[in-house]
Amino acid sequence: MPSETRAVPPVPVEERLFSLVLALLATESGLTKNEILSTVQGYRQRFEVHGDNASLERQFERDKDDIRELGVPLETLEAPGDPGNNQSLRYRIPRAAYELPADISFSPEEITLLNLAAMAWREGSLSRESRRALLKLRSIGADTTEPVLGYAPRIRTRDAAFGPLSDALARGLTATFLYLKPGSAAARLRTVQPLALVQHQGRWHLKAFDQGVGEPRTFLLSRISGAVKLGRQPLELAPGDYAAEALAELDALWEANVAEIEVVPGTDAAVRLSRRRGAKLSADDVISLHFTDAALLADELSGFGPEVLVRSPDHLVEAVKARLRLAVDVNSEGTGGDSDGR
């Protein structure tokens, strides 16, 4: 009897990003794009040795942006004898960026707890697929070392709404949920026909036809509150590449919105923000930063405190000031002083 061909199950995005970070941490000299796509879990399943891997390369480009967005210091190295050739570029994550400062020490009790945590991490972090990928990297000559299992890449897990919305999309059902728009006092009930789920700049978005307004809308999954309820009768979906449309719209929004942010040199904010996709650092320590959502960026910038000063646009300046004033009010029970936005 002829053997049956089994479909390869899709690799969850978190596992793919983790595997990418793990592989790039495990090599000092870095890996080429071809080595990554042919060996790393989540890519190699779709890699064709002599085929067209254009869609896989685009996936890798988005994944690079996502892990940089999460603060992972991904470096790009040019081959000494082949400058300017993108195919010979090598990618790596320097271990030194994850090492603790020399002046940090732990008590015996803290070391015991850290050892216990490392044991638990060691059991669950390096899967059979990850070990297989490391062996394959060694077989092609990559100078990999056993990764330090204490590294725990901060890969954002999927939002709670992802599962039911993915189910609704696969079955052609409507979805109803509460959605809180920035600036709104309360969440509003939305009933939509899902068209696509896409990840952009490390966050999941739903492209859907909003039945309440009669037009397509894009929703940020992290703003969906409560349970997602699915309809019962399947709806016919008009043909179209809705995922590509959603990503193109988000890219256009990201390209159009630029913030000017003054940073204190050497701080966490300076390091993280300057490594974002498209970020430009000027001589006077001002970073030009693209963004898609002012409310999300304001939340993040306010968390840096005095390390940043937002110069523009005005609505982002006001949003950061409002968050800092709220923090002062909460911490001083309404008797705190004014904040200047820095």
TrEMBL record:
Sorted alphabetically, which InterPro entries does this protein's record hold?
CBASS_pafABC_assoc_protein, WCX_dom, WYL_dom
Domain WCX residue range list: 270-326
Q: Which Pfam families does the record match to this protein? A: WCX, WYL
The domain of life for this entry's organism is: Bacteria
**In what residue span(s) does the WYL domain sit?**
162-226
Record's protein name: WYL domain-containing protein
Supply the source organism for this entry: Herbiconiux oxytropis
